[in-house]
Each structure stands twice: as C-alpha cells, then as structure tokens.
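Supplementary Note 3. Input sequence used for the single-chain structure prediction.
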Amino acid sequence: MTDSTIARCPDAVRAYMTLATGDDRPAATVLFAEDAHVTDDGVDHRGRDGIRTWLDRVAGEFSYTTTPVSVYGDAHSDRVTIRCRIEGDFPGGVVDLDYDFRLDTSGRIASLVIAPATDLG
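The predicted structure, written as discrete structure tokens, is reproduced below.
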C-alpha cells in the first residue's frame, strides 16, 4: 500500500500499514518492540510471537482491503492514529477503524489498539 495519507507517519507505522496488509507478516512483526502489545476486537496479543500469531489469524479470516482515510500525528510523534476504511467479506462488509499506534524511544511500535472509529476532533 503506497498512500499519501500515511506518507508523513513515522517509519515503523508506515511500514506496518504496508506490510501487514500484504504477505510479509514476518517483516511486519519485527516493527514491534519485543514486549509490545496489540489490542484488536478487545483482545490483547502480547510480544512478537503473540503479534505474529494474531497477524496470521487475521490474514486468513476474511478477504478485505484497508484504505487509510486520515492521520492524526506525524513523523515526529510518538503517538499516531490512522483512521482506515476496511471493506471485505466479513459481517457488515464495511467498517471504519482507528489504528492507535504508540512508539517507544527507538521508534518501534510499543502498542497498537485497533477499535471502531470515534470522534478524534
């Protein structure tokens, strides 16, 4: 995914958005800190092994596309939220989700919370 919407995001966030939606989930996993955690659908996935398992499961559940709609934060932020439109063969077919990234001091993803879009204004 090459998208001008995410062009000004920190490197790890931009790379995650590109790699996680493709077939290179191992490369997406190393963007996370060793002790990172992801919360998706209210479930926590901890550490790189847990995150890799989650990425593999999500990739196989449904076919979908992810389109970044807006970004809050920039390349110099340690917190970035990307609103994405997800369209696919899951129940409902379309949903807007916020991907809330927090980065550690080395620029790796320390946490990612994926949740239904809310008013960020």
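The first strand starts at residue 32 and ends at 40. The chain has three helices and six strands.
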